[in-house]
Amino acid sequence: MTTRGDTLRLATRGSDLALRQAATVRDALASRRLTVELTEVETTGDQIRDELIHRLGKTGAFVRSLDEKVIAGELDAAVHSMKDMPTERPDELVVAGVPERAAAGDALVTPDGLELDDLPEGATVGTSSLRRRAQLLAERPDLTVEPLRGNVDTRIEKLLAPTLQREHQERHEAEQERKEHAGGEAQRASENSGGQGPPAAEDDDYEFPYEQDVEGWFNGLAELERRAMERDPDVEYDAIVLAQAGLDRAGLSHHVGTTELDTSAFVPAPGQGALAVTAVDGDLAVDIKDRIDHRRTRVETTVERTILAELGGGCVAPIGVYATLEGGVVHTNVRVLSRDGDEEVRVGRDLPAERHISAAVDLAAELAERGADDLIAEAKRDAGAADDDAATAREEEDE
């Protein structure tokens, strides 16, 4: 091993979600003879606050800084969200461990649990993912899809803010009305009694529409909801789309209404829901693999990332690839779209598990011949033109 004594130094991004993910890897690797220490590293993606992830120049904006520390020997291994990893990797590094994948799909998140078909005509949906945007528009061309900045907590706060603020205002107005009503009744009772004696009780014709007053309601809010109350979002979202794995890992699903989106239509990003532990090729990498590698997840994500690498779309084209291993077959769905969702190439295929890599290469070649190459080339041209757009946003990792 190349660890410092009996301590494995594990690099991670410093976001709350990244730390949660790294902690699961730390716990899986730790043993009586090995202590695992998390070290936070700021990445290029963290430093550039006002750009969409697909405008950062290269893929791997959240990955390179961590891997550089590992290659230099300053740290021993790094934890990444697999979907953030570029398909081209430094020769010195290997994906040493792939833990079992969490939920791979996307979730529609609304304040009240609406499904996609229930959203009103022209509803505003937030996402900074080109893939999610294209898939949403393909299903619902009437939607307005707006960029959405921030980590998972921030995005949910921006979604909840308008609804919570309206409810606060409505409760406040109802409370004021109740006080005015009570004051009027007291005044009339005093006048009727000639100004003597206690005022009569309130009339029964007024009903306060809430069980709690404003203070009691606010005190019952979760911390995330209180933070949302303080936000002044630029856009009022009817819904947002996030990775289900990110919601689950962050423990935020109970604060909002979520609907899992069908992975056959909303095909996930390659590697979504999976983590990857990178290390320099050698004894440590072998030891990490022995401890935490999950064969099914490695096969599935290898198929997904092989197809992505062969197509060459990176993060500038809307590409979804989702593979599931069942017995000796890898069920694989691929969806490549134009950025506006108007055109697409879609293929579903069962690949033999014993030669899943070569079969994935063949499937990518078929997709290219059927028009995926043209859609990706068009997306790259659109990405170049988009650099002149004044509107900016940023997608941080959400799983």
Briefly say what this structure is.
39% of the residues lie in helices and 19% in strands. The chain has helices at 16-29, 44-47, 64-71, 130-139, 152-192, 214-219, 223-229, 244-250, 283-292, 295-311, 356-386; strands at 7-12, 35-40, 77-81, 93-97, 106-110, 124-126, 144-146, 239-243, 257-260, 275-280, 319-326, 329-337, 344-352.
Q: How would you summarize the topology of this molecule?
A:
Elements (H helix, E strand, L loop, with lengths): L6 E6 L3 H14 L5 E6 L3 H4 L16 H8 L5 E5 L11 E5 L8 E5 L13 E3 L3 H10 L4 E3 L5 H41 L21 H6 L3 H7 L9 E5 H7 L6 E4 L14 E6 L2 H10 L2 H17 L7 E8 L2 E9 L6 E9 L3 H31 L13
Parallel strand pairs: 1-2, 1-3, 6-7, 6-8
Antiparallel strand pairs: 3-10, 4-10, 5-8, 5-9, 11-12, 12-13
Helix pairs in contact: 5-7, 10-11
- Main beta-sheet annotation: 5 strands, mixed
SS content category: alpha/beta
Q: Which series of helices and strands comes N to C? A: EHEHHEEEEHEHHHEHEEHHEEEH
The rounded distance between the terminal residues' Cα atoms is 29 Å
How many H/I helices?
A: 11
Radius of gyration: 26 Å
CATH topology of the largest domain: D-Maltodextrin-Binding Protein, domain 2
Classified by CATH, the class of the largest domain is Alpha Beta
Major sheet: arrangement of strands: 2-1-3-10-4
Task: Provide the helix percentage.
Answer: 25-40%
